[in-house]
Amino acid sequence: xxxxxxxxxxxxxxxxxxxxxxxxxxxxxxxxxxxxxxxxxxxxxxxxxxxxxxxxxxxxxxxxxxxxxxxxxxxxxxxxxxxxxxxxxxxxxxxxxxxxxxxxxxxxxxxxxxxxxxxxxxxxxxxxxxxxxxxxxxxxxxxxxxxxxxxxxxxxxxxxxxxxxxxxxxxxxxxxxxxxxxxxxxxxxxxxxxxxxxxxxxxxxxxxxxxxxxxxxxxxxxxxxxxxxxxxxxxxxxxxxxxxxxxxxxxxxxxxxxxxxxxxxxxxxxxxxxxxxxxxxxxxxxx
Amino acid sequence: xxxxxxxxxxxxxxxxxxxxxxxxxxxxxxxxxxxxxxxxxxxxxxxxxxxxxxxxxxxxxxxxxxxxxxxxxxxxxxxxxxxxxxxxxxxxxxxxxxxxxxxxxxxxxxxxxxxxxxxxxxxxxxxxxxxxxxxxxxxxxxxxxxxxxxxxxxxxxxxxxxxxxxxxxxxxxxxxxxxxxxxxxxxxxxxxxxxxxxxxxxxxxxxxxxxxxxxxxxxxxxxxxxxxxxxxxxxxxxxxxxxxxxxxxxxxxxxxxxxxxxxxxxxxxxxxxxxxxxxxxxxxxxx
Lengths: 287, 287
Hints:
Structural class of chain A: alpha/beta
Number of strands of chain A: 12
Distance between the termini of chain A: 39 Å
CATH topology of the largest domain in chain A: Rossmann fold
Oligomer: homodimer
Helix content of chain A: 25-40%
Low-confidence stretches of chain A: none
Radius of gyration of chain A: 18 Å
Mean pLDDT of chain A: 96
CATH superfamily of the largest domain in chain A: Vaccinia Virus protein VP39
Order of helices and strands of chain A: EEEEEHEHEHEHEHEHEEHHH
Shape of chain A: globular
CATH class of the largest domain in chain A: Alpha Beta
Largest sheet of chain A: 7 strands, mixed
Strand content of chain A: 25-35%
Number of domains of chain A: 2
């Protein structure tokens, strides 16, 4: 049995038949918010760990990969991103990366649970260092409703930085949400959405997501691949969908001369993340 | 505590402060060979699992990524690979991939432990399906000594498909071995070697390996990245070193028209695997 004792935190992935564990110092905080159970641990080698309802949300050690890959590929795909919305993303790590782009004029972060952000401010202060940027707007509300209410053609990039497609985030993986996204986006608008593991979730999540965004009217979608040690299987995707044009094309020269520091992302990594493993390439082509 | 009971197999990675666990059916075999303790489990979702001295060697579910990435990038980097040697690789999965290349005339697999191969034949028969190919030669001997004894300029591609750099495999990560490799290789020869995780082993293993192959006289070396769920952190590298020329250049058209099936590898994946994460790019450049 894999157990969550004082010494280790373990997350079991039922559909994977696997578990990932982090050696702990101690649990430093736990609370039941109006939406979910949030816990913070001090780990032996991964810095702080935040879990929601027993699932790893982020660790201090490897969140840089996830946050950079949620933010930069989408922003360098859009020709001139000025208005961005982040649905979820309450830890503010994606927000920080978005704000590195000087052309971005306004970012709205809409997370349903203010407690995630308050705990991130305390335990992941480095991710929240740009929260006071005048271009940043932090809302604590239902992201699905926010997109439904937003004016048509008002947003350049939508980032869906949510929990897994069970519970509150379920509606973020359904076609009505993508139709609302399409309406809200500008002509060359893109959506990027965290979309789980190619090894575990290709049939149940990744392919249905691509099918739904295309049925909702997006011109095309592509999977972006990156390692994410603390998520099931260690291999993760974001799905990048374009309202028009080809989501595989990006401002490569701008990505090379980006003028800000990254730890994972660069133009070669962006190009490489677009490469589809043969088994997934075949399945995506048959959609 | 992470425990190895009847229900789960767990491998703790001390240097990572993490553990990976697989849900089991049952342990189906265990033995002490002259070299190491080998166990075979039936898992719930990963097919068979082979461990050596408590470390995951391979699973039925994800070994295709590792074996394809050990074999195909190196073979499509060399202009005309005919003679190949695999050091280690006793499960025969890399051998099977190498034999898919019709230009390859002879492959010698040198694993010190015959029991690994005998157990692979029984529990991973799909990996051993090419063992009777007349081009394949299976030796059970010390790979370091084999390379030392091999004639100069006799091998096009050396694949070091070993266990971690502790115990019997330690000498495979030392400079004298790379000097022997260099001597044995033909003019455009390459070495590919499994080289652990960028998240956990950059300073302790990956960078020293690049430093040593270059000090041994190789013209250049590059890290190839790929996901490997059942190895620590889920993110793995192979190090590709070229006796002459640029190991980032490869026969891309041949890789596209390769004429055999793969599940992970293709030309885009090859190109993508050469992309260096920003943190590693900076460290490799400063070598």
